[in-house]
Write a structure and sequence with these properties.
The protein is α/β, with parallel strands linked by helices. The protein folds into two domains: 191 residues, Rossmann fold, CATH 3.40.50; 172 residues, Rossmann fold. Strand 11, helix 9 and strand 12 form a beta-alpha-beta unit. The longest helix is centred in the N-terminal third of the chain and has 21 residues. It is globular, with a radius of gyration of 21 Å. It starts with a strand and ends with a helix. The model has no long low-confidence stretch (mean pLDDT 91).
């Protein structure tokens, strides 16, 4: 394929890579994709805040991180969100006004850039993060998506995400998220602990993981931090903290993402979410370490897990009892079968959910839309 000139627009005008306790899966994916496409020989410009150090050219528009400015100025959340629109629109405007410089514009936020679509003839591709039902789209946005439908393409990370999101989008395909598999060590000899990784909020249902582990008499390690809302704090204090008192439960707290990649070598990962997730980065990261997944059958779970091959898919109607039974089924495997499951986990990620596979998928999509 000929070398393409690609504008990669990150989300929220932040300094990249994210640091400290800042969690931004869309920006982590955007920067990893930018670097991989550059490795393929494409010319990628990443639109992000000043002081971003990504190993690819960065257009920072002369603006520092909006998130850092919020902390420094003490803005309210409402002020921050209002300014985020302005920063993102300006970054988008710079990319679109530079359109002779780029063959493809690839954005990671669908909410702003469509209103600037008339300014360019180049195809604009949006990676959708989260599930976006039609009711969440404003009427003006629906109109612009309709009027300029021919040059705006939306990509889902899973069939479940596409099915749950607005059909006003012009869907260009499904490209699963990918990770740098080599960054995650394969655990030949995992710990005997089970693992939960995620936000400690009601929708993620870590209490289901804890109760199932206790019922199955297996140790469980929990990595994550409480949510920001008052209801999340109440859930943590009233529901989770009393369960942490059991000797079989270890609460480890928050671990930054680079360090987290070395923590996945567990007996299995429990993923009892109540959400219809768009994807599940935690699942593919754990599988890269060879760790099987036990998850409720929601969202893209069946697209990620091969049932009884790389873990177990549990009917959510069976709840904690179903999770407990799946744990017991895993515990009953002989060593050879369990080791084969771990190898299958790693292999599935290498084949379907690697950064290389994701970047090749986008490369094919760029070529397809440019040839229309």
């Amino acid at each position: 394929m000929d070398s393409l000139r690609i504008a990669m627009i990150s989300q929220g005008h932040r300094t990249l890579p994210p640091s400290g306790s800042v969690i931004s899966a869309p920006n982590t994916l955007a920067t990893a994709l930018a670097k991989e496409l550059q490795r393929f020989g494409h010319k990628v410009t990443l639109f992000a805040a000043a002081n971003s150090t990504m190993g690819v050219p960065v257009d920072d528009a002369g603006l520092s991180s909006l998130l850092a400015a919020k902390a420094q100025a003490g803005w309210s959340d409402a002020q921050y969100l209002d300014l985020q629109w302005q920063y993102d629109l300006y970054a988008g405007l710079r990319a679109l006004r530079s359109h002779p410089k780029f063959d493809v514009i690839h954005a990671h936020d669908y909410r702003r850039l469509p209103f600037l679509a008339p300014l360019t003839l180049q195809p604009v591709i949006y990676s959708l993060h989260g599930t976006i039902p039609s009711r969440s789209l404003s009427e003006p946005l629906k109109k612009i998506l309709s009027e300029y439908r021919g040059q705006q393409y939306v990509v889902a990370a899973s069939r479940a995400q596409q099915n749950q999101s607005a059909q006003e989008f012009r869907w260009a395909g499904i490209i699963p998220h990918g990770i740098e598999v080599d960054q995650i060590p394969f655990a030949n000899q995992p710990s005997g602990e089970y693992l939960f990784v995620g936000r400690l909020i009601p929708g993620k249902q870590p209490d289901h993981a804890i109760r199932a582990a206790l019922a199955a008499s297996v140790p469980l390690r929990i990595i994550g931090q409480p949510g920001a809302h008052e209801s999340d704090a109440q859930y943590f204090e009233q529901t989770l903290e009393p369960l942490f008192g059991d000797d079989a439960i270890t609460y480890q707290g928050y671990i930054p993402h680079p360090e987290l990649l070395s923590e996945y070598g567990a007996k299995a990962l429990l993923f009892p979410t109540a959400y219809q997730e768009a994807f599940g980065m935690v699942m593919i990261e754990a599988m890269a370490a060879g760790t099987p997944i036990i998850a409720y059958d929601r969202g893209p779970v069946r697209e990620i897990i091969a049932d009884s091959v790389t873990g177990y898919v549990v009917d959510p109607r069976t709840g904690i009892e179903g999770l407990t039974q799946a744990i017991r089924t895993l515990e009953a495997l002989n060593l050879a079968d369990y080791q084969a499951m771990r190898r299958a986990c790693r292999s599935r990620v290498e084949q379907h959910f690697s950064l290389n596979a994701m970047a090749r998928g986008y490369e094919r999509l760029y070529q397809s839309v440019l040839s229309e």
